Amino acid sequence: MTESWVNYAERIGVDLHLELSGPGGRRAALTRALREAVRGGRLAPGTRLPPYRSLAADLGVARNTVADAYAELVAEGWLTARQGSGTRVAERARPLRQAVGAPARAPARARGPRHDLRQGRPDASAFPRAAWAASYRRALQAAPSEAFGPGDPAGRRELRETLAEYLARARGVRTEPDRIVICSGFAHALRLLFGRDTPGGTGGWGGPAGGGVLRGPLGVEGYGLGFHRDLLAAAGVRTVPLPLDEHGARVAALGRERAVLLTPAHQFPTGGPLRPERRAAVIDWARARGSVVLEDDYDGEFRYDRRPVGALQGLDPERVIHIGSVSKSLSPALRLGWMVLPERYVEPVLAAKGEREGWASVPDQLALADFMAGGSYDRHVRRMRQRYRGRRDRLVAALAERAPHIEVTGVAAGLHAVLRLPPGTEQTVVEAAARRGIALDGLAAFRHPDGPASAGDGLVVGYAAPADHAYGAALEALCEVLAAA
Ligand SMILES: Cc1ncc(COP(=O)(O)O)c(C=O)c1O
Predict the structure, then answer these.
(1) Class for domain 128-375, per CATH?
(2) I need a labelling partner for 3 at 20 to 30 A (CA). Which of 58, 90, 301, 393 fits?
(3) What protein family is recorded (predicted)?
């Protein structure tokens, strides 16, 4: 078998990998390989093939072998040969997947819903492209060459220093750069903490062989993201649901769990902040039992009633792992987050990440450091806070007028609100909304399967997701559905 990278980039600007193998000698093998490259779409219609002589030299075959192979493919209609313009892939030589009747264009990705009121999504149209691009440019210009080598699994120091300062100022987190490990978001943090693969393992799992940094059973809130529950279940972690009320999780129900995962600033999705006595109680529980609290600070920056609550971590940095990301504040597409760790977990988490950074792009980390240090992050968060507050106010006002029987619960915070529905109506309303082109979830979608009492019927309305110009229509459609419910 002869294998060669045919580099004819200087002539036609592409590399072509050809594998000459199979029966019938080199001419037959080359003909087959070229035919497959055209048929499979690797050589697009119109592409100019290299001259006989250079392809022959690259492959180590006789010039006539190439000439014969080209001639055969011209005769079959795969190639065309014209005086003065060389040999090209025929325009009608459509790739195989089209020849067998697939649509001529790549199938469009499933189109989004007409009205997107799904929770957890920031307004993607508001991504601060210009400021981010400016930060990216500055970061690339300032970065030392070593920044483009393998990354440190802790994350770039520039970012960890900026984050330590930002989190202290904006969220009341008590930490220092060496206690921060950069990750690709909350889900990745969970994987690192509970993964049971080999160090830096493939398949997205970190964790020392034979067990993660932490173990279950893990106390969780009776309502939460199913995706996170699935992720924990896949790691073999048993989750124990805690009852909830408007003051967050009833942490007095904690017993022998080894850790507990909470959303203290704004319970997800029901919307109550963890009341102060419970904040103190869960820290006491962790101290008494040698356990740890995982704080999911997913939308802590977005509080609209001028009563922001600081991070739980500030109460005891040795008993709380504080986890945040830019998924709500900037974009879930960036995949950048952070874990603020008690000292004893720093080394195990770094071991779980492996020898080098395998998830969070270093240039992106440097761009975020610049974005935060230069004030762009604060500006963006302030702008989005105003925008989302305005949207929540519009939602509340529209419901008061059009569907006064529907109550909005939870504090004025975050990117979603919960609308209470009369008992037994949730499923019908979700279906009616879907028929009207509205994508949203009912509360039941978030309930832990072994959960205690149901939190009742409700809709989880993500008011942040639509672009500004689309929000009014989405609200109107929602009001129509609710007024008729
Ligand atoms: C409850 C909760 N936690 C955390 C996150 C952030 O997840 P990630 O950082 O993995 O994007 C989300 C985002 O959807 C969320 O809803």
Answers:
(1) alpha beta
(2) 90
(3) In the C-terminal section; belongs to the class-I pyridoxal-phosphate-dependent aminotransferase family.
What stretches in the chain show pLDDT beneath 50? Answer: 1-3, 7-11, 13, 99, 101, 198-210
Query: Is 338 a pocket residue for ligand 1 (Cβ < 6 Å)?
Result: no
Stretch (H or E) spanning 426? helix 426-435
Find out whether the beta carbon of 268 lies less than 6 Å from any atom of ligand 1. yes
Polymer length in residues for the chain: 485
Ramachandran class of 410: left when φ > 0, alpha when ψ lies in -120 to 50, beta otherwise = left
- Closest to 70 (Cα-Cα) out of 96, 38, 92: 38
Query: Does the C-beta of 52 come closer than 6 Å to ligand 1?
Result: no
CATH number for the region 378-484 comes to 3.90.1150.10
431 — alpha (psi -120 to 50), left (phi > 0) or beta? Answer: alpha
Instruction: Say how many Å lie between the CA of residue 187 and the centre of ligand 1.
Output: 7
Residue 264 Cβ contacting ligand 1 at under 6 Å? no
> How far is residue 293's CA from residue 116's CA, in Å, rounded to a whole number?
33
Domains 128-375 and 378-484 share a fold: no
What does the DSSP assignment read for 55-100? HHHHHT--HHHHHHHHHHHHHHTSEEEETTTEEEE-TT---HHHHT
- Which tokens hold the place of 122? 């920031």
Distance CA 46, CA 88 (A): 6
| DSSP per-residue letters across 427-482 | HHHHHHHHHTTEE-EEGGGGB-TT-SS---SEEEEE-SSS-HHHHHHHHHHHHHHH
Cβ of residue 325 lying under 6 Å from some atom of ligand 1: yes
Q: In this structure, what are the phi and psi dihedrals at residue 167, rounded to the nearest 5 degrees?
A: -65, -35
pLDDT given at position 40:
83
CB of 248 closer than 6 angstroms to any ligand 1 atom: no
Domain ranges, ordered by start, for the chain: 2-99, 128-375, 378-484
Distance 472 CA to ligand 1 centre (A): 26
